Amino acid sequence: MPEPTPRPHKIPQSVLVVIHTPALEVLLLERTDPPGFWQSVTGSKDAEDEPWAETARREVREETGIDAGAGVLRDWAVENVYAIYPRWLHRYPPGVTHNTERVFGLQVPAATPVTLSPREHLRYRWLPWREAADACFSPSNAEAILLLPEFAP
User: Cis ω on the peptide bond leading into residue 34 (within 30° of 0)?
Assistant: First the structure.
């Protein structure tokens, strides 16, 4: 049996998209690896020159099946730089230890259907924004959710 083709290294520039309803209920996704870690939509650029907003739209579609064009996507112009968790360093080029994350909000109608990517997520839930922030494993994700009332349309 042939060796599997190695995945290309990730670009250390990603988006965090806080998907929410007008009532500020936030969509959280449970990761497959490791289970029990709840988060908003996240994902890396596919190319260095991919615009942030395009990365956000693509990641939302891939992870939730939601068309960002059906809601209100806003670039919050907030960037977080953080150390990459050691368990995921192998996904990045050698020597890369930090990632830059651009934060977006996506307001969608209540009861928007969600279709998870089974490769990435086990379950989803909608929570009031403060509860959602408390449920996140990532400090930058929790902080972004706490900014939601300031940035929601």
Answer: yes
Find out whether 110 and 23 touch, Cβ atoms under 8 Å.
Answer: yes
Residue 102: which residues within 8 A CB-CB, separation 6 or more? 13, 14, 15, 16, 52, 55, 56, 75, 78, 79
- Pairing verdict, β 13-20 and 121-128: unpaired
What residue spans define the domains of the chain? 13-151
Residue 5's pLDDT band (boundaries 50, 70, 90)? low
In this prediction, residue 4 has a pLDDT band, given cuts at 50, 70 and 90, of: low
Instruction: State how beta strands 72-83 and 25-31 pair.
Output: unpaired
Surface-to-core class of residue 137, CB atoms within 10 Å of its CB (0-12 exposed, 13-18 middle, 19+ buried)? middle
Element (H, E) at 1: none
> 49-98 pLDDT, tens per residue?
999 999 999 999 999 999 999 899 999 999 999 999 898 899 999 999 99
Statement: 13-151 belongs to CATH 3.40.640.10: no
Pairing of β 38-39 and β 72-83: unpaired
Rounded to two decimals, the pTM is 0.93
Closest CA to 80 of 34, 3, 18: 18
